[in-house]
C-alpha cells in the first residue's frame, strides 16, 4: 500500500511514533520490514539526559501513562548510530527537542546534516520539566521555533503538537505559516496522575505523566479533525491507533499517514503489517481508496 508523503514514496502509510523504540538501526529496520512505512527515531536532545527515575511507565489496561522524561545521549554523542543509519535502505524521521529556540536550531542543523528524510520537532512533551509544551501550547512560540529551524535544515519539517493546546488548530496554522511541511498530532495527552491508595503516593516517580493508547483515540481524532480544517499541509494522525478501523477513522478526520506507538506493546512488532492489512481489507470491502476517504468526515451531511 504505497503512499506518497512530502515527495517521498513510503511502502505503507504507517508511521512508528517517536519514543516507542530507539535509534538503533537494527530495530528501526525491523519495524520497517514489519510494515512500518516511516520509522521515527527516539527524540534527540541538546545534551545528555538520563530521563526520570523508575517507575516511568504504567499499563492502565485501556492505555498507558508514562513519564520517561526524554532520555537522550545528546546530539553530539550519537556518531555510532548515525554511521550505522547512513547505510540504511529505509526512510527515517528524526525527532528532536530543545529547551529554547537556540537549542532547537543547534540540534536541528546538526541532525539535518546527518541525512534523515524528515525532521520532527517535538514541541509537545507533557512530562518534562523544561522541554516540550512550553512551545506547543502557544501559537507565537510554536511559530518562532518552526521558523527558526526551517532556516537551517534541508529536509521536510514536521511539527508534533500537543492536545493540551487550548486551540490546536491555531497552533497548527501558526506552524504552517512558519514553514512547517506537515503536522503530527497528537503527542501523549495530559499530564495525568495515578495514585496508589495503599501507599497514598503517586505511582510514577515523576508523579505526573502522559497518557497514550486506546483511551486517547477520541481526542486524537478530534484534534486531527480540527487541524484538517485549518491547514493545507498533510497530517500524521496518531494517538490510540491500534487497528485498521482506528486508522480509517483518523484518516476520515483528515490524516494522510497514521502513527502507531502504544499498540506495539499490545499487538507486537507485527502491528504495522496487521494494521496495513486491516486498512486494505476495509477499503476493498467498501470499494474505495485512502484518497477518497481522507477527510470524508468533513463532507458528511448529518
Automatic annotation (TrEMBL):
Residues noted as binding FMN in the record, renumbered to the chain: 18, 42-43, 122, 160, 186, 213, 239-240, 261-262
E.C. designation(s): 1.3.-.-
Reaction(s) catalysed (UniProt annotation): (S)-dihydroorotate + A = orotate + AH2
Pathway field: Pyrimidine metabolism; UMP biosynthesis via de novo pathway
Compartment(s): Cytoplasm
Span of domain Dihydroorotate dehydrogenase catalytic: 2-282
Superkingdom assignment: Bacteria
Single GO MF annotation: dihydroorotate dehydrogenase activity
Residues annotated to bind substrate: 42, 66-70, 122, 187-188
Major site of localization recorded for this protein: cytoplasm
Cytoplasm listed as a keyword: yes
NCBIfam families named in the record: PRK07259.1, pyrD_sub1_fam
Similarity comment text for this entry: Belongs to the dihydroorotate dehydrogenase family. Type 1 subfamily.
Function (record text): Catalyzes the conversion of dihydroorotate to orotate.
Name of the protein this chain belongs to: Dihydroorotate dehydrogenase
Species this chain originates from: Desulfobacter postgatei 2ac9
Lineage, highest ranks first: Bacteria, Pseudomonadati, Thermodesulfobacteriota, Desulfobacteria, Desulfobacterales
Amino acid at each position: 500500500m504505497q503512499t506518497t508523503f512530502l515527495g517521498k514514496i513510503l511502502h505503507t502509510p504507517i508511521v512508528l511514533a517517536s519514543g516507542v523504540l530507539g535509534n538503533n538501526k537494527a530495530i528501526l529496520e525491523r519495524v520497517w520490514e514489519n510494515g512500518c512505512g516511516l520509522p521515527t527515531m527516539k527524540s534527540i536532545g541538546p545534551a545528555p539526559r538520563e530521563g526520570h527515575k523508575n517507575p516511568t511507565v504504567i499499563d492502565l489496561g485501556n492505555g498507558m501513562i508514562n513519564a520517561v522524561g526524554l532520555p537522550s545521549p545528546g546530539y553530539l554523542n550519537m556518531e555510532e548510530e548515525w554511521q550505522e543509519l547512513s547505510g540504511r535502505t529505509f526512510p527515517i524521521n528524526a525527532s528532536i527537542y530543545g529547551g529554547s529556540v537556540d537549542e532547537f536550531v543547534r540540534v536541528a542543523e546538526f541532525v539535518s546534516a546527518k541525512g534523515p528524510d524528515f525532521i520532527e520537532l517535538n514541541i509537545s512533551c507533557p512530562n518534562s520539566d523544561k522541554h516540550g509544551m512550553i512551545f506547543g501550547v502557544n501559537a507565537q512560540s510554536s511559530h518562532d521555533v518552526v521558523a527558526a529551524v526551517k532556516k537551517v535544515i534541508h529536509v521536510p519539517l514536521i511539527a508534533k503538537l500537543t492536545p493540551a493546546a487550548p486551540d490546536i488548530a491555531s497552533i497548527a496554522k501558526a506552524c504552517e505559516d512558519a514553514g512547517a511541511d506537515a503536522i503530527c498530532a497528537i503527542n501523549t495527552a495530559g499530564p495525568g496522575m495515578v495514585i496508589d491508595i495503599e501507599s497514598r503516593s503517586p505511582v510514577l516517580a515523576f508523579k505526573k505523566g502522559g497518557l497514550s493508547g486506546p483511551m486517547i483515540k477520541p481526542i486524537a481524532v478530534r484534534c486531527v479533525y480540527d487541524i484538517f480544517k485549518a491547514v493545507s499541509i498533510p497530517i500524521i494522525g496518531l494517538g490510540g491507533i491500534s487497528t485498521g478501523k482506528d486508522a480509517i477513522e483518523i484518516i476520515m478526520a483528515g490524516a494522510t499517514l497514521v502513527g502507531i506507538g502504544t499498540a506495539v506493546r499490545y499487538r507486537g512488532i507485527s502491528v504495522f503489517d496487521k494494521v496495513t492489512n486491516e486498512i486494505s481489507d476495509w477499503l476493498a470491502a467498501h470499494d474505495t481508496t485512502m484518497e477518497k476517504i481522507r477527510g470524508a468526515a468533513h463532507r458528511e451531511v448529518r
